[in-house]
Amino acid sequence: MNNKRRDLIKKMTVSQQFVTQAEDNAKMDKVRRYAPLILLVIMTAIGGISQKNFFSWANIVNIMFQMSIPLVISVGLSFVLLLGSIDLSIEGNMGFAGSLVAFLVVNNSNSNNFGIFGVLIAILIGLAVGTVVGFLHTKGRIASFIVSYAVGCIMTGAAVLIYRGTPIQVKDPMFIAISQGRLFGIPYITLISFAVFIIGAIIMNYTAFGRAVFAIGDNEAAAASTGINITRTKIKVYALCGCTAAIAGVLQCMRLKLGQSNLGLNQMFPVVTAIVLGGGSVSGGKGGSLQTFVGVLIYTELANWLTLMGVDTNLKKVIQGIIIIIAVTLTVEHNRKTVVK
Amino acid sequence: MKQKKFSLSNLSQYMVVISIVLVFLVFTILNPTFISAYSLQNLLVEVSPLILLAGGLSFIIFTGGIDLGSGAMVSATCVISGLYVSRFGNWIIPIMVVIGVLLGMLNGVIVTKLKIPSFIVTLCTQNLWAFIALYFCPNGSVAVGMEYRKEITWMTSKIAGIPIIFLFAVVVVILLYIFQQYTPSGRAIFAVGANIRSTRLAGVDTDKAQIMAFVVSGACSSLAGALYAYKQKSAVPTIGDALTLSAIASIALGGTSMAGGRGSVLRTTIGVITITAITSGLNMMGVDPLWKDIIIGVILIVAVYLNSDTKGRDIIVK
Amino acid sequence: MGEVLFETKGVGKTYGSNTVLHDIDMKIHSGEVIGLIGENGAGKSTLMKLISGVETPSMGEMFYMGKPYVATSIINANKQGIGMVFQEQSLVANLTVAQNIYLGREKKYSKAGLVNWAEMNKDAKKALERVDIKLEPGKKVRDIDMATREMVEIAKVLDVVTEAAEGHAIILLDEPTTVLSDDEIQEMYVQIRKMKAAGNGIVFISHHLDEILAITDTIYVFKDGEETAVFPTAEANIDVLYEKMVGRATTGEFYVEAQQSVPSDKVVLEVDDLSLFGVFNHISFKLHEGEVLGLAGLDGSGAEDVCNCLVGQVAPTEGRILIEGKEVRFGNSYQARKAGILSVPKDRRDEGMVSILSIEDNITISSWEHMKSKGLLSGKKIRQTALKWIKEAGIKCTGPKERISQLSGGNAQKVIFARVLESGCKVLILNHPTRGVDVGAKQEIYRLVREMTAAGHAIIVIGDTLDECLGLSSNVIVFRDGLISGSFDCPVDFKPSQQEVVHFMM
């Protein structure tokens, strides 16, 4: 604040000061909102200068392919983070869905051949698990991190129980076809992921449910007063998150042609990092599909850099953690009367 | 006066006692060797490090927070103690306490000063602990050299039939109980969990209380890591993977409220013994150990549900 | 004025044994603007909550369009044609203007589950034009200024209620002018007149009497949850309104005035040109040993915010706080306590009591470091301290181990008084010390206050009523719009009248 403005503000009445303050905050908010986009542009520019094939179709497809699974997970998770809650069951859910689908389609360990129904069953179970998490969280009034953590552990355990030690290899022709197929050079798995993401974006932006989630995250009391059914909306969000986690698990299984609980391992944390990088807030109300997309893109480019620099997986996770803490510190609203525990 | 009715919330108070009695009764009936001296001694060795871990973690939960990375912290400290016991001998134990204090302080300072929810912070810092563990032990477990084994076997030997490692855990629990019950910081930790706003306005240094909780938990996790190194006689980078769940479930089973403000390390201790008895009992009966996480996960959910205040006032749960 | 749209007959509200609103008869006619005035806690907001469906009355009946009226929720009231613009804006900042206006009512615009935003925006534009604002309905609320938000809120409520009750809706405006400039207020009047001309009934609450006189047709005056006067605005003047608002003063005996001590010359606390941008400006005063300093002012006048600064909850943007001549700064209430300032907070449940802890813990929480023996907390000392205060303050309980949440409001408040007294702090801030406390407990609290000053404590009090503030204090400072507007000496037997003081408040 320069001195002149400071003097001016000093002379104002309190209500004028109040309004000025609110407008200043709105301006800062705008800066924060465009920061991720600016970051993305800068990173892309540096990428373009430093790597000569950066803008080649092959590299773009490669980046899109790397974005695939995170993008699918991000669909459900961004809804959950918009509420200001978290879903730690995603990894367990993914591992279970992947293991289950491997068990149900043509594979090396049994004579099942459910084909597309196997996929549907796995996804529906994911949806059911998400619903259970949402139900326990809202009706049981238990913090989401604890419920989802417990359910996640249960699902990981259940995934291992399906194959008992030796991961199942998938032999299903459909799976093999999808995992190898490409359209204009883009893998089918990537196309499916982008389609799921677009559906998610439509739900977020073009349905009353999507708006209700925004409203709850921003101001739960105000949302309740307009007649939004908070409990039902939250359960739906968790159901959606379970569903997308299961889809991600199935896609992961297609990609690796292997069904095991590890399919989900370390899959959630990068997505939290990505969403936060895109400007989503862990305290709820901030973010959106576009922001999530930008975040996933930034994250993917960043991950590529780190790989190029020879940073190992574990250190990468530490860096992700530091990024989350910095990003959350910058976006957390200190004047909000929420209790930080 | 309102008449006291038998309700779910009352049940949660006695849950831990009922369940420990039930667990021992059922397993003894199914398999009388369950309470043989040998298997009991084994149980005592088995529970000791977990008692430390869960006992320390309880304090974070008393404040209403969580540490999702406490298992990973055990891995990291187990690795450090396993590798450096050869250099420092038994001095490794106090050294680990100091390291634990520092690690816990890092969590606590980020939670309080940057005002980020603890589950986010610890979700991030657990990667740091995992990194440390794997940095020192990139190729799996490393056994303590044979020439140093002599120095560390005392921990698993027995006095009057009771393993020293268990006595060690008991001493720590007593210290934790004194901290919980007889120090201003200990009481402040509960007050923070009960209502951080009122507590702050009553002029209590709530930041300090929260940091203290993380520090105590860090020190205990770190000691637990050292105990695992003594017990396994090696540095095991994956030792903590499943421990966070067991620790949280033990705390919940003990009747400690996940929302904070209520509970006790003594209850947690009984919770740990119960959970460990369940898993080892099932093991003795030949139940596939793959069921372990599922069973503990279910116990966690049920226990948390029974402890949670479902009627409560209109507090937004996130 | 047209027919009677809405009527309350003997409506009241009680919380437990505490009556906050009693026997209200009000008639709202078509095309009428009703002004509602009264001090804080006079019951204005409670009545609004009853009409708007936030709460249900404990007694009496309400009629809307001649039929019995019951509203189970805000939405339910909206659907019947009654809507309220709340004091704290209820817009959701991360949604667009149109989405806010139709939040919870998207069905009209959905096809196959997908909402047609273009169509909604078109309707929103119309709704906004109804209050004469030109605004892109696709804009996010966080991107528009405060005054426009207020108008959007009005447009939203107007749209909801006129949909249900064209021309005979009831619109409740709870202090809609707080964030507006003079020009914007004039604009607001235009809108109110338009709504009125359309035949709706309007209730307008404001702390500014000039606004009330300018826009309303009828004025209802509330005092202590009762309706003390009703007049046509044409017959009202400011002096009469003041008189009706303050009611009759209670006797000095009630406030144990005989024991009111004369402050010494020793300055304990000095506040020097303290400002918190957007909240209050240039506040200076001195607090002496043995003094009770009353801070009077309506909600939002800045009095409470000064106290928040003094207990370290908020850091002031300018100015100094001195304790016994030494400048102190604190970032939290712990440091404030260490410096010697502790408060009895306003909201007993959320800020005062640590509900699930025992009485003894609640009493000693601010002085645990003095409860040690041999380096450890002594359970015995804690219990004895608790027993001492239970006896001295007359706390009715089963014992020191009982949970504080089991106590009645008055007894819980005494526990918190015991806490601040045990803390050893010199400066005590009593923020609404008798809120929600019955008459008997009130007197005991007043007696405690007198004992505190006799023991040399210096006290700042924000009274629950002006009467209480004057009765307890030896000096009173009056706040208005974030500034000190006046100050009064209140020696025993020569207390200023409430009318005199209230002039400076409004």
UniProtKB/TrEMBL annotation, chain A:
Ranges annotated as spanning the membrane: 34-51, 63-83, 90-108, 114-136, 143-163, 183-204
InterPro entries documented for this protein: ABC_transp_permease
Listed CDD domains: TM_PBP1_transp_AraH_like
Keyword Metal-binding: no
Top-rank taxon, per record: Bacteria
Key words of the record: Cell membrane, Membrane, Transmembrane, Transmembrane helix
Membrane topology: Multi-pass membrane protein
Xref: Pfam families: BPD_transp_2 (PF02653)
Compartmental location: Cell membrane
Protein's UniProt keywords contain Amino-acid biosynthesis: no
PANTHER family reported in the protein's UniProt record: ABC TRANSPORTER PERMEASE PROTEIN YPHD-RELATED-RELATED (PTHR32196), RIBOSE IMPORT PERMEASE PROTEIN RBSC (PTHR32196:SF72)
Protein name, entry field: ABC transporter permease
From TrEMBL, chain C:
Keywords, ordered alphabetically: ATP-binding, Cell membrane, Membrane, Nucleotide-binding, Repeat, Sugar transport, Translocase, Transport
Presence of the UniProt keyword Coiled coil in the record: no
SUPFAM superfamilies: P-loop containing nucleoside triphosphate hydrolases
GO molecular function, one term: ATP binding
Record keyword Transport present: yes
Gene3D superfamilies in the record: P-loop containing nucleotide triphosphate hydrolases (3.40.50.300)
Positions of the ABC transporter domain: 6-249, 262-506
Highest taxon listed in the record's lineage: Bacteria
Protein name (database record): Sugar ABC transporter ATP-binding protein
Provenance organism: Blautia ammoniilytica
